Fold this protein.
Amino acid sequence: MSANGYNALDRLIALFSKLPGIGKKSAGRIAYYILDSNPSLAQALAKELESIHQLIRRCSICGGFTEADPCMVCTDSNRDKSVICVIENAQDLRIIEEGREFRGMYHVLGGLIAPLEGVSPANLSIDKLIKRLNGVKEIILALNPTIEGDTTALYLQKVLKEYPIEISRLASGMPVGGNIEYIDKLTLSRSFRGRVKI
C-alpha cells in the first residue's frame, strides 16, 4: 500500500468508477475480473486505451469518431446526401447505424443547449451544420426527448426556417425522457419511419 493509503487495485477501481454508468461496485467487479483473468487481457486493454486518442479522431464533415477522415459514412456514395440526421453525440451515430433503417448523412452537434450547465448554441457545431445545407432537402432532428433536446430542436427549427428544407423529428416510439442509447432497434426503426414534420 502506498503512503496515501491507496494501493493499485483501489486506484484502478477509482478510475473505472469515473466512467459513465459504472458505480463503485461495478468498478470493483471489473477490476477483480481483470485480476482473475489472463494478464494478456490487461495488456491488450492497456494497449488499446493508450493508443485510442492517436488512432481515433473526429470526422471533419459529420463530427463522428473515425480512424480515417472523412469517415466511412461520409464517403459512402450509396448514402442519401440530401438528408442529414442531427444527433447529440457520436455514440448516437453508432446506435442508429446498428438499426440499419437510416441511409442518409449525419451531423453530430457535440451536446445539447443547456444554459444551466453553461452550454449555449455557440458551443455546438450548428454553424458547421449550416455550411452543409447545399443540396440538402431534409433535416431529421434525432435528439433525445428531454428539456435540453426540445430546447435544441426548437432553436434549430428557428435557425433553419429560412432555408428551403423540410425539418422532421423522430416520432413516437421514443419515450419522453428516454435516451437513444437505451432504445431497442425496433423502436428506433419505427421512430425513423414515423417521423413527423415540425
In short: The mean pLDDT is 90. The CA atoms of residues 59 and 68 lie 8 Å apart. Strands lie at 57-58, 65-66, 80-87, 104-108, 138-141, 166-169, 196-197.
